[in-house]
Amino acid sequence: MADLEQASCSQDSLEENSQEREKSASYPEPIVSLSGICKTFGSGTTKIHVLKGVDMRLNMGQLAILKGRSGSGKTTLLNIIGGLDMPTEGDVQVGGHHFHRMGDKERTRVRKCEIGFIFQAFALHPLMSAWENVELGLRLSGVSSAQWTDRIADCLEQVGMTGRAQHRPYELSGGEQQRVAIAKAIAPRPKLLLADEPTAELDTRMSERIMGLFERLRSEERMTICMTTHDQTMLEVADHVYEMADGRLV
Ligand SMILES: Nc1ncnc2c1ncn2[C@@H]1O[C@H](COP(=O)(O)OP(=O)(O)O)[C@@H](O)[C@H]1O
Ligand SMILES: [Mg+2]
To answer: In the beta sheet, which residues pair with residue 89?
Structure first.
């Protein structure tokens, strides 16, 4: 719990965020800017060069899709954009913050306040209901408690999980858990939403519903969304498709 509180955002910093957001809305600078990103794992003979010089810019309100074969480095790149991992070389700027010039604590604050994640590794809290998990997301990002009830109800509704709000993750299917994770990530209304295969566990109808939701968040809230997918039909909604191959975007 100490860890959760330590990196929570204050209301002040959220107000600063919204001022910054207005500023960046009137000056269309990219919300994400990557230059010369290289990432190497391991050392000596086991070294693998996963990213070999990636440049990428995402503007406010853009929905970008990252595709590429399994193992091509999509998750690694999303982790770097989200400040969860640091590149071996290169510069990462998100919402005007230079990640490589910041300490861990400051980067964690930016992550919690400004970025929403839908990642396999960011599992739901096993002892909390769907409702409480979404509430935890709001608490961590510093949204005032007066707004929690409406936001949670709305986000669970958006992903079709209203009827399962009181269930814990182990009582839900993989797809239902994924939908709760989506509700949790979007509830704080982050500037930037990073989603790693968010529709992997969903059937076609539900995938379409989630893509419709992303499209609305993009157009109505100017949320910037970057997601990975294997699903060819998802590519239609993107306004930019990046393909990872041999450590670079092609
Ligand atoms: N922490 C790590 N340590 C060592 N190798 C890693 C690590 N994370 C990813 N890799 C390797 O980097 C490559 C790219 O992985 P990943 O980014 O997960 O690809 P994708 O998401 O496109 O399937 C893979 O070969 C994977 O084994
Ligand atoms: Mg992956």
So the answer is: 38
pLDDT digits (tens, 9 = 90+) for 209-245: 999 999 999 999 999 999 998 788 888 889 999 999 9
**Residue of 53, 76, 61 whose CA lies nearest to 30:** 61
Q: And the tokens for 129?
A: 């209901």
The tokens for 43 are: 């050392």
User: Which pair of tokens denotes residue 176?
Assistant: 């239902």
pTM: 0.89
Q: Relative to the CA of 79, which ligand 1 atom is closest?
A: 17
Alpha helices, H only, the chain: 2-6, 11-26, 74-81, 104-114, 130-140, 148-158, 174-186, 204-221
Identify the CATH number of the domain in which residue 127 sits. 3.40.50.300
If residue 91 lies in a helix (H) or strand (E), which one and from where to where? strand 89-94
Q: Which domain holds residue 49?
A: 2-249
DSSP state of 150: H
Taking the CA of 88 as reference, the closest ligand is 1
Nearest atom, ligand 1, residue 78 CA: 17
For atom 6 of ligand 1, the residue with the nearest CA is 41
